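Annex B. Sample input.
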Amino acid sequence: MAETPQRLSLFIDGDFLGLAGTAMLVFLVAGIMDNRFIGRALLWSIDRITSPIRASTPILMRATFGGFFVALWTAGGIILTPELLTRKPEISWLQLLIAFCFIWEKTLVFAACGIVGLYGYALTRYGLFHLLDYPIFLGAALYFAMIGLRLRPWRLAPMDVVRTGAAITLLWASIEKWGYPQWTYPLLATHPNMTMGYTMQFYMKAAGVVEFSLAFALLGTPLMRRTAAIILAGMFTAAVLEFGKIDAIGHSAIIAVLIAVAADNRPGHRQSPVLAPAGYAVALVATLGVYYGLHYALFDKGKSLLF
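Annex B, continued. Sample output.
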């Protein structure tokens, strides 16, 4: 993470602006659809598809996260994700204890504390910038604590908390596709079909815009967030077919969250169609600014990240 990201001027060009502009147009159309019959019809269809999952969402989340932590305990030497490594054997036993705490609703708060503890431990070893890749774990911990304690502070729903954590995780990760495209080039070289005929450079810009756009949609209206959750869940699941069971384990938690978001049929508030594209533009500039500004402050003082 201390590696200097690609300068902004190297990827913010006509192609990038065209892709971002297309995304804003899609959000405008989605905002218009929200208030019309077609939007309501799409939501009704999603409701019908996800109705078997809705009542079982907490069980789905508990089972998936429990299995995830059992897998971490089995592998050993991993804190939360494969690049967060540790040599302390007690971490593995904590992971097994967390997994057991998912069995009963009353012990979910202890599972939540364990997840926060692992996140904090990783923070001390790898630093703030690296751990900003994984706020989904903090969102999940708060979700389980709220479920276990049956808390609704400020009328906040547990699903809104974990959904926001997933959105921030994907927003932050999408910047890496622009700042560090070279990390993915070896993968594209061995799986050339992924580029769909585009150059690697253009593909990485487009992939980042798609991921950022879908992540931003998770923060939007019910139609936007539920549609985005279905698309993202499909993308993560399709990756398993290409990359195997390690990918399935690593992405199981976020797939479960996305399925839960897709099944969440709580109504939202009507808003102006222009609010989503305007918010998208603000979120794009703000996320880029925070990512590059924080990296400059922590690692790159004296270097230019603009030109």
